[in-house]
């Protein structure tokens, strides 16, 4: 499975993952230092810090771009209203990622939003309200933010 980029969170068949803690910023005092004047000075022992739990590494907000990330083709390519499931199709990895965000308890502290620069705002809202994540919920039901311009 090819991982799909969803912000800096990826989905790769094994579920959603976030970058390892090595990508997270560290405080300067937690980093080892070297005396640059000599090569014989050993590295200072790294100060032990509290280990962060997985929930602390998860993003507070996961934003999905719509066109060519959640669904295809892009909405501007339509001359008339797209028909979700017939002329507009959801990428399976995007659907799986949304399902995991909705069902896995580790994501309870995270919010979900959609972003798009489409000129077809009404079609985007209609599609979000039509595509099902499961039998009871549409994409729109899972969105924490609902702003239309």
From TrEMBL:
Amino acid composition bias (Basic and acidic residues), ranges on this chain: 27-38
GO molecular function: acid phosphatase activity
Region of interest (Disordered), residue spans: 25-50
Name of the protein in question: Magnesium-dependent phosphatase-1
Organism field: Lotharella globosa
């Amino acid at each position: 499975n090819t991982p799909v980029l969803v912000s800096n969170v990826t989905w790769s068949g094994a579920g959603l993952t976030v970058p390892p803690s090595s990508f997270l910023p560290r405080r300067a005092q937690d980093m080892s230092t070297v005396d640059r004047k000599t090569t014989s000075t050993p590295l200072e022992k790294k100060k032990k810090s509290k280990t962060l739990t997985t929930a602390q590494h998860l993003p507070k907000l996961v934003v999905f771009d719509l066109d060519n990330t959640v669904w295809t083709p892009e909405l501007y390519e339509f001359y008339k209203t797209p028909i979700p499931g017939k002329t507009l199709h959801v990428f399976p990895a995007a659907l799986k990622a949304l399902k995991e965000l909705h069902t896995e308890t580790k994501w309870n502290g995270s919010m979900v939003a959609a972003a798009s620069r489409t000129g077809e705002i009404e079609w985007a809202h209609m599609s979000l309200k039509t595509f099902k994540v499961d039998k009871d919920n549409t994409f729109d039901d899972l969105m924490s933010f609902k702003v239309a311009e």
